[in-house]
Amino acid sequence: MTNPTILPAWKALAEHRREIATAHLRDWFASDPQRCQRFSLDWGEIFFDFSKNRITDKTLGLLFQLAEQSGLAARIESMFNGESINLSEDRAVLHVALRNRSERSIEVGGYDVMPDVRRVLDKMRRFTDQVHSGQWRGFSGKPISDVVNLGIGGSDLGPRMVTAALTPYQKQDLRVHFVSNVDETDLLETLRNLNQETTLFLVASKTFTTQETMTNARSARDWLIAGAGGDSAAVARHFAAISTNHNAVQAFGIDPENIFEFWDWVGGRYSLWSAVGLSIALAVGMGRFEELLQGAFEVDQHFRSTPFSRNIPVIMGLLGVWYANFLGAESHAVLPYDQYLRHFPDHLQQLDMESNGKRVDLTGKPVDYTTGPLVWGQPGTNGQHSFFQLLHQGTHLVPCDFLVAAESQHELGEHHAILLANCLAQAEALMKGKTEAEARDELVDLDLPEDKLAALAAAKTFPGNRPSNMFLFKRLTPKILGRLIALYEHKVFVQGTIWNVNSFDQMGVELGKQLAQAILPELEEGRTGDHDASTAALIETCRRWWDRK
Ligand code: F6P
To answer: Looking at the structure, do residues 451 and 387 belong to the same domain, yes or no?
Structure first.
């Protein structure tokens, strides 16, 4: 547990930043034909090219030293060995156990968790087989046509993202929907076209107390019972729960047979590999779900056993530290050139920002350095026609991750080649930029007066030297997707280790929840609360417009 800023490598990196302050990526590429070969890793069907980063061999060497001096190797072992590395909640962090495809046992407090993990996987397999085969029937004897996952945060974003990403692998006669927002629009618009007789709800909630999910679950239950002519026995055929909280699930009225358990050592944002992934298994089949697990397992092995110099999540994490702490970057853009990966940035947003959006270190001391970045993005090429302007010519340094498949899932004329060309071109343009002289050359025929020419050339100049990673993968299969997600999970772990923060709690979401509980009766019943003038005026205005005053 060390303040990273006192480490020798940190100090050396601060010094090194001054050495390379005026260097340009364009010149590094021009003078070094081996640059891409040295700064890339061809790992199975993923080619990770990190050569377009503002790094030299020395930068990387110092970053690896920083990882060593931060005790990263020992901390990786602590996680895989089931130690309570989530200190504030005194819990192990073992999403790696959920995708452990080996015979190796993994213990928490001397108890091997693997038999439980396999038992739940078996139960998921039996359940998905029953639903797919039509053996599982609704209250009126019809097979299931629609599954609705009710969950939020980690109980929604991961499965939602994976299900969309694996659309080409989906079962044809079963539709899977996701409802997360407590705004009734989300539930009502989803239920609008569904039939109670053939709809199955999965209530995914680790705690089974989350206000949004429980409110949606209660309304969904009412909708179902109304459709079943008031017969609450229908719930047993139409509701399953994924939770660590058995008592609350049973109190809700869900048949204990329909409970898929997971454990407190699975963090919400790391839970798609657990029974929270039941919606994924229902969408694509258990075999595909296990391919996803396999991909993540391969990354776990890579992360645990590969030297830092060839370890992809370690390199990803260290590059982020370099930009955040030494080059002043405040955000990180994730840009999948793949429509099926449209929810990937949303998932990473929770993964990264809930994990490393922390202001105190593991001992509770406020940090005096930058921690987790703002993570954002959307699929290409759409983003090119909105925020890419800022990426190329704005005043912020925004490191970017591009993700793209070499092979499309479809064949439609030139579409995929155009998509790929755009993706590669954007990374090249960010890196190279366009000099003022090049811009002037393009304007020469306009024959403008010098002041106009200068202004226009300046506006058309791209500084370049803007960093990016490229994740080029062969095709978006379940295994490759599993790998991509796990790479980012471990990247977040690397950064949390260096920043010396607890990446596995999320205390920052609590205050708003507490205040919402207080405001609710004031809105509904007009009780008086103790608020600032602004909040009190907003409550009073709502009540007036509701005509309840
Ligand atoms: O509010 C944040 C959070 O606790 C997330 O970390 C979690 O993924 C989400 O809420 C949902 O929690 P649960 O699965 O317990 O409903």
So the answer is: no
Domain that holds residue 124: 111-289
Nearest CA to ligand 1 atom 1: 509
- Comparing 496 with 547, which gets the higher pLDDT? 496
Name the residue of 155, 243, 261 to mutate for ligand 1: max ligand atoms within 8 A of Cβ: 155
Ligand 1 pocket by C-beta < 6 Å: which residues?
152-155, 205-207, 210, 213, 268-269, 354, 506, 509
Note whether residue 400 is domain-resident.
Answer: yes
Q: SS3 of 239, please?
A: strand
341 and 229 assigned to the same domain: no
| Closest atom, ligand 1, to C-alpha of 354 | 6
Say what the pLDDT of residue 1 is.
Answer: 67
Give the tens place of pLDDT for each residue, 153-178. 999 999 999 999 999 999 999 999 99
275 and 327 belong to one structural domain: no
Over residues 450-494, the pLDDT tens digits come to 999 999 999 999 999 999 999 999 999 999 999 999 999 999 999
In this structure, are 124 and 270 located in the same domain?
yes
Distance between CA atoms of 273 and 162, rounded to whole angstroms? 11
Report the residue among 506, 510, 511 best suited for mutation to probe ligand 1: largest number of ligand atoms under 8 A from its CB: 506
Looking at ligand 1, which atom is closest to the CA of residue 268?
8
Confidence at residue 526, expressed as pLDDT on a 0 to 100 scale: 87
Residues 372 and 245 placed together within one structural domain of the fold: no
Residues 46 and 28 grouped into a single domain = yes
Number of domains in the chain: 4
pLDDT digits (tens, 9 = 90+) for 396-417: 999 999 999 999 999 999 999 9
Residue 210: closest CA among 510, 444, 527: 510
Question: Which atom of ligand 1 has the smallest separation from the CA of 243?
Answer: 14
Whole-number Å distance, alpha carbon 155 to ligand 1 midpoint, is 7
Residues 236 and 329 in one domain: no
Q: In the beta sheet, which residues pair with residue 332?
A: 375
Just list the catalytic residues. Answer: 354, 385, 513
Strands (E), 79-132: 107-108, 111-112
- Report yes or no on 96 lying in a domain: no
User: 266 near 206, Cβ under 8 Å?
Assistant: yes
Provide the β-strand partners of residue 462: 434
What token pair was written down for 290? 């296990």
Instruction: Examine the domain organization and report whether 424 and 455 are in the same domain.
Output: no
